[in-house]
Amino acid sequence: MFDTCIAGSLPKPGWLAETEKLWPQWRSSGPELDAAKRDATLLAIKEQEDAGLDIVGDGEQARQHFVHGFVERVEGIDFEHKVKMGIRNNRYDAMVPQVVAPLRLSGRVHAMEARAARAHTKHKLKFTLPGPMTIVDTVADRYYGDKVKLAFAFAELLNQEALALEADGVDIVQFDEPAFNVYMKEAAEWGVAALERAAQGLKCKTAVHICYGYGIQANVDWKNTLGQEWRQYEQVFPALAKGRIDRCLSSAITRMCRPS
């Protein structure tokens, strides 16, 4: 039997942020926004419990975007001067921050959501973080000059936060890597290794989520080019199966990479 859970994010309530946008703007700021994020997190937990899920998460209510919600707490990244960049192999353009200096965390990233969720549920708790390859594909590098070096720099920071989440009582740390479905060769060559660096030392369960992207038109158009057989997973799953990540999650299924 498989434990049931959502992939990670849930729609934000309209009183918290704009709706139906990839980068929604918050409805408030300061202490009021902090309280609203906490309330939305607890509401997301309750909704998952009421739905009968075995594993619950924070619903990513306290972050504007699954990648930028992490990197906005990273020093060495310039959010003031975003640039337009093609992401997911130029499938669509996005305004992204720039890496301009050595990377380091400015402090905890998701302590509030993790601790609030842990204090208000007895269910198993899963928490999501962006994977290093996907972060690299969602920022503009103006400093490192090498995707692999940049990925491992992010992996070290992700590892710091992942270990702290484990200490907060999180049962499963999940890394989201939609880029694995785009750069299949690179994912096998160095993406999985960077992912394992992000998970290094964790004693809790680990997972990676690989999907075919948001339901935006650019992704719909791309999916229409894939034909009758979508075979992206067959290149990445074998590399993951040889590694130390416990679970693989796709958009629609959960598959064990190795026994947990």
Helix content: 25-40%
Instruction: Work out the number of β strands.
Output: 9
What order do the strands of the largest sheet run in, or round the barrel if closed? 1-4-6-7-8-9
CATH class identity of the domain at 30-61 and 111-133 and 152-256 = Alpha Beta
**Terminal-residue CA separation:** 13 Å
Report mean pLDDT, rounded to a whole number. 92
Which structural traits does this protein have?
260 residues, alpha/beta, TIM Barrel, three-stranded mixed β-sheet, 8 helices, 9 strands, 35% helix, globular, disordered C terminus
Summarize the structure in words.
By secondary structure, the chain is an alpha/beta fold. It has a domain at 30-61 and 111-133 and 152-256: TIM Barrel. Helix content is 35%, strand content 22%. The protein is built from eight helices and nine strands. β6 (172-176), α6 (184-198) and β7 form a beta-alpha-beta unit. α1 crosses α3 (111-119), α5 packs parallel to α6 and α6 (184-198) runs parallel beside α8. The chain is globular, with a radius of gyration of 17 Å. It starts with 29 loop residues before the first helix and ends with a strand.
Would you spell out the secondary-structure blueprint of this structure?
Blueprint: H1 30-50, E1 55-57, H2 68-71, E2 74-87, E3 92-105, H3 111-119, E4 124-130, H4 132-136, E5 140-141, H5 147-167, E6 172-176, H6 184-198, E7 205-209, H7 217-223, H8 233-241, E8 247-249, E9 254-256
Parallel strand pairs: 1-4, 3-5, 4-6, 6-7, 7-8
Antiparallel strand pairs: 2-3, 8-9
